[in-house]
Amino acid sequence: MMSERLVPRMSLVIPAYNEERVLPRLLDSVEAAARRYAHGAAAVQVIVANNASTDRTAELARERGCDVVPVAKRSIAAARNAGFAAARGEIVGFVDADMQIHPGTFDAIETALASDRIVGGATGCTLDRWSLGLAVTYALFIPMVWLTRFDTGVVFCRRRDFEATGGYDESLRVAEDVALLFALRRVGRKQGKRLTRLRHVKAVASTRKFDEYGDWHYLTTIPRLAVGLVVRRPALLEEIERYWYEPRR
Q1: Which residues pair with 121 in a beta bridge?
Q2: Is the separation of the CB atoms in 191 and 93 below 8 Å?
Q3: What angle (nearest 5°) sits at the alpha carbon of residue 113, between those of residues 107 and 190?
Q4: Residue among 22, 30, 104, 99 at smallest CA distance from 66
Q5: 10-208 in CATH: which number?
Q6: What is the pLDDT of residue 227?
Q7: Is 98 exposed, middle or buried (0-12, 13-18, 19+ CB in 10 A)?
Q8: Dihedral (CA of 153, 81, 168, 160) sign
Q9: Reduced to 3 states, what is the DSSP secondary structure of residue 92?
Q10: What does the pLDDT look like over 33-65, one tens digit per residue?
Q11: 203-205/125-127 β-pairing
Q12: Is the N or C terminus of the chain more exposed, i.e. has fewer CB atoms within 10 Å?
């Protein structure tokens, strides 16, 4: 999986906090995609930004040949930025540790960025299980994704364009990924380029937050926490910290 070349073509950043249970399945999927990559598996650099894990996340990542970057500050934005700082590829991608990527991911990204009209984008994702609550939640997000072209899964762009955004905003405890896409869209507009969605190579996202909080909780808990971010009510801010930064694992 890791490149022996001095300069890999593609760098994939994986922020990780106590992910020893799910990280191996993501890395299995990354290896499968790297083997199919037209530039060869050696052209893919995989970086695990170890965000103060207390389990075997870093050890497992090293055993699998990943570059491991220690990040002491418990911040998803800081972890993503630290991973990027270690990236050597011309193309960079970011994916959460509890996802699995499609085997055609790297080639699809390569093809998208070969266009002079695309600044970057995301693959989108499907879920590893479904229920009525999950389906309703997923459907409610679709119009926003269509309107903005903001998506999740593997988020990707050229190195120079990521640098032009200023990176992930480390003042944000949550929604740093959305802020990055806003910034990347602004960078693209200056160049006459746009964001894209690679819907044919969707990642598979874990539903562990739904397993923990219930399949309908995005319709109740998340709106309340969003209000907490606006009004800055201490009790809600503490709940936001628990929800995003103190997972039960």
Answers
A1: 156, 196
A2: no
A3: 165
A4: 30
A5: 3.90.550.10
A6: 74
A7: buried
A8: negative
A9: strand
A10: 999 999 999 999 999 999 999 999 999 999 999
A11: parallel
A12: C
